[in-house]
Amino acid sequence: MTETTSVLALRGISKGFGAVQALAGVDFEVRPGEVVALVGDNGAGKSTLVKVMSGIYAPDEGEYHFAGRPVKVNGPQDAADLGVATVYQDLALADNLDVVANLFLGHELTNVGPQLDETRMEQRAHELLGTLSTTIPSVRTVVASLSGGQRQQVAIARSLLGEPKVVLLDEPTAALGVPQTRQVLDLVRRLRERGLGVVVITHNLADVFEVADRIFVLYLGRPGGDFAASDVTPEDVVAAITGVHNGNGNAKEATA
Amino acid sequence: MSTATPPVSETDVLPRSRAEFLQRFTQGDFGSLRVLITLAVIWLIFALANDRFLSAINLTNLALQIAGIGLISVGVVLILLLGEIDLSVGIVSGLCAAIMAVLNVKHGWAPVPALAAAIVAGLAIGTFHGFIHTRFGVPSFVVTLAGLLGWQGVLLWVLGDTGTINLNAPLIVDLAGTFFADAIGWIIAVVLIAVYAAVTFSGRMGRVRAGLDAPPVGALVVRVVAVAVPVLLTVWIVNQDRGLPLALVILVGFVILFDYVTQRTTFGRHIYAVGGNEEAARRAGIDVRRVRTVVFALGSMMAACGGIMLASRLLAVNQSSGGSDLLLLAIAGPVIAGTSLFGGRGRVWSALLGALVIGSISNGMDLLAYSSDTKFMVTGAVLLGAVVVDAATSKRRSRAGRV
Ligand SMILES: Nc1ncnc2c1ncn2[C@@H]1O[C@H](COP(=O)(O)OP(=O)(O)O)[C@@H](O)[C@H]1O
Ligand SMILES: [Mg+2]
Predict the structure, then answer these.
(1) DSSP secondary structure letters along B298-331
(2) What is the pLDDT of residue A222?
(3) Are the CB atoms for B251 and B330 separated by under 8 Å?
(4) What is the pTM of this model?
(5) Nearest ligand (C-alpha, residue A40)
(6) Residue A106 and residue B286: Cβ atoms within 8 Å?
(7) What is the pLDDT of residue A247?
(8) With an 8 Å Cβ cutoff, is A106 touching chain B?
(9) Predicted pLDDT of residue B12
């Protein structure tokens, strides 16, 4: 639990929007090869915390550590340069383009001048999707004809092209059916196998217990519990999310 | 669920069965095939009604008639791919032609600098539209509507009291007035086909070498033949009249150039991305404003080229240059030929095919001595038919989960 082992760590993060204190004194970390589920009620500050990690929000207070060193993150580009990739809830894929074009959008491979190197892009797309064992039928499929789960897989695969060390997923299984959710969770496991640190926001406790190594609870912008997934029951987590029982203190001590 | 996904819709994969062909045809996967059928029907009707329609002299005239509007439509396609519209392309074509004419005739500029000035003026006007559109978030519809009015004023001002300026500088009138000798026409055709075949087959070889699945050789042969036949037929026909018109070579050249830019370059890819999902493009790090501004600049540049071609054919520029139905037809053409008004879907070829459809209607009606009232009504009906078919097929397509 020390900084030498965590790839991304936040210390004492606070962030307010006017009168709303969205985050207050939050410590958070994720280690390589670890899946951390970030849970909490609506408005608990999950998205805000992810946006601090992805550089979209500058915290009012607190430190950002990457690979054990304090770093300055001013904007999403800084976070991306460090190796923090974010997959947002609204996937932002271009429906009219095929899988290869979406994977490389904005970072196309070229051969002569600005001429697209379709062959090399398609090869790399095959490699990437192959190692991830995605269920995408063909890399030349137009994205509009993919299922929700397949689109999510494209979005996640896309974030891996920049060789990140940490991947942040905001509600990757929201609005997906059971089989599609399974596909996405399988993919999350393979990110872990690749040694990436993964942070998953989710509302679904079944998902949490299926993939997470650690469960981090936010309650009204404050740390509401930090559990090893194997140590707790869903009831414990629900209690921490809703703030009933004397949840906070005990939960922390349980894993400390 | 992968099992529930419709069959893979690889861009160039040929349908496997007749049922699949019919299904994809009604879903609009073969947009250009549909317009070719439309064209065939129109030609058949006019050929039956008047045997002069398919004569070499008339088809050569048709090529000359569509060159100017086709060039304007090339720029319109780029703008439609963004999901935007440019209502000023007609008047900008007139204004740029007027700039060329005034510089050449009144100020004694040589043809080349006068032509260059007209094209640069087009680029500058489009950049200005793009700038206002992107920096102030004004819808392109409004910016270019203001342009339609404003540039009309500038056109009248540039022409001054003269009203009409007649053109006689060699290079300028040669644009629409040059016909290649028969042999040169054949050479151009053969080179074009050879290059297309080389690109097609070397692309396949590259895929095979990279271990990617490649289309069967037979399918590529069919594709090369499908290009070779109309090209050779065209040259054969025009060679029976005055020969291959330079104007047609210029139009096809620009179509090929911009088809390459849109299909094979990063910039083209970014145009489709912005037209398909602007937010996705922005998050992918694409400079959306830059893409938009450059597209508007290119759109007006092509309007300038079209205006020059029209002036060269008319041998004059006057106060009605770029006016009348030019704008509407330049936009209607690509839409008839399958380019979506909603962005992200369409090919530059639709500029050529659309101009052919519209030009054929107009030319055939002229031959049959119909007046322009009938011409407008028929063209309107064809446009309406095309957009209705487009809307219906894209509905069917989205039900089947395809773009
Ligand atoms: N950009 C913002 N401006 C003002 N208030 C915000 C903003 N973003 C979040 N908040 C507020 O901060 C709190 C935490 O929000 P958020 O991080 O989105 O929660 P969650 O993702 O856990 O549902 C909420 O009270 C929300 O209203
Ligand atoms: Mg949220």
Answers:
(1) HHHHHHHHHHHHHHHHHTEE-TTTT-TTHHHHHH
(2) 95
(3) no
(4) 0.89
(5) 1
(6) yes
(7) 44
(8) yes
(9) 41
Residue B276 is nearest to which of A94, A123, A177, comparing CB atoms? A94
Q: What is the ipTM of this complex?
A: 0.88
Place of tokens 């007006």: B300
Mean pLDDT computed over A186-192: 93
A3 and A201 in contact (C-beta within 8 Å)? no
**Per-10-residue mean pLDDT, chain B, length 403:** 34 52 54 83 95 96 98 98 97 98 96 98 98 96 96 95 92 97 98 97 95 92 95 97 98 98 98 96 93 98 98 96 92 92 93 96 93 88 84 69 49
* Helices first, then strands: H and E counts in chain B: 16, 4
Q: At what angle do helices B246-264 and B349-367 cross, to 10 degrees?
A: 150
Using CA atoms, how far apart are residues B89 and B95, in angstroms rounded to an integer?
Answer: 10
Task: Work out the minimum CA distance from B284 to partner chain A, whole angstroms.
Answer: 5
**Which positions ≥6 away from A174 have C-beta within 8 Å?**
A89, A202, A203
- When pLDDT is averaged across residues A207-226 and rounded to a whole number, the result is 94
What percent of chain A has a predicted confidence (pLDDT) above 70? Answer: 93
Query: By alpha-carbon position, which residue is closest to atom 16 of ligand 1?
Result: A45
Q: What does the pLDDT read at residue B3?
A: 34
Question: Tokens 């240059």 appear where?
Answer: B321
Which domains are present in chain B?
32-38+49-181+243-398 (1.10.3470)
Distance from CA of B31 to the nearest CA of A (A): 15
Question: Which residues in chain A have Cβ-Cβ distances shorter than 8 Å to B279?
Answer: 90, 92
- The upper half-sphere exposure of residue A79, i.e. CA atoms within 13 Å in the direction of its Cβ, equals 23
Q: Does residue A230 line the site of ligand 1, with CB under 6 A?
A: no
Q: Do B285 and A179 touch (CB under 8 A)?
A: no
A5 interfaces chain B, CB cutoff of 8 Å: no
Ligand approaching nearest to the C-alpha of A171 = 2
CA-CA distance, A7 to A167, in Å (whole number)? 11
User: How many Cβ atoms from other residues are within 10 Å of residue B5's Cβ?
Assistant: 18
Q: Quote the pLDDT of residue B11.
A: 39
| Consecutive H or E run containing A88 | none
Q: Measuring from atom 1 of ligand 1, which residue has the nearest CA?
A: A17
Q: How far is B272 from A140, CA to CA, in rounded Å?
A: 16
CA-proximal residue: ligand 1, atom 25 (nearest): A43
For the CA of A48, the nearest ligand = 1
| Domains of chain A and any CATH numbers | 3-88+164-255 (3.40.50.300)
**C-alpha A205 to ligand 1 mean position (Å):** 21
Alpha-carbon distance of B17 to B21, in angstroms, equals 6
CB-CB under 8 Å, A97 with B273? yes
Residue with tokens 């064209």: B39
The angle formed by the CA atoms of residues B290, B291 and B292, to the nearest 5 degrees, is: 90
8 A C-beta contact, residue B281 and residue A105: yes
Q: Does A122 touch chain B (CB under 8 A)?
A: yes
**Which ligand 1 atom minimizes the distance to the CA of A51?**
17
pLDDT for the residue numbered B135: 96
Give the best residue of A109, A140, A159 to mutate against chain B (max B CB count within 10 A): A140
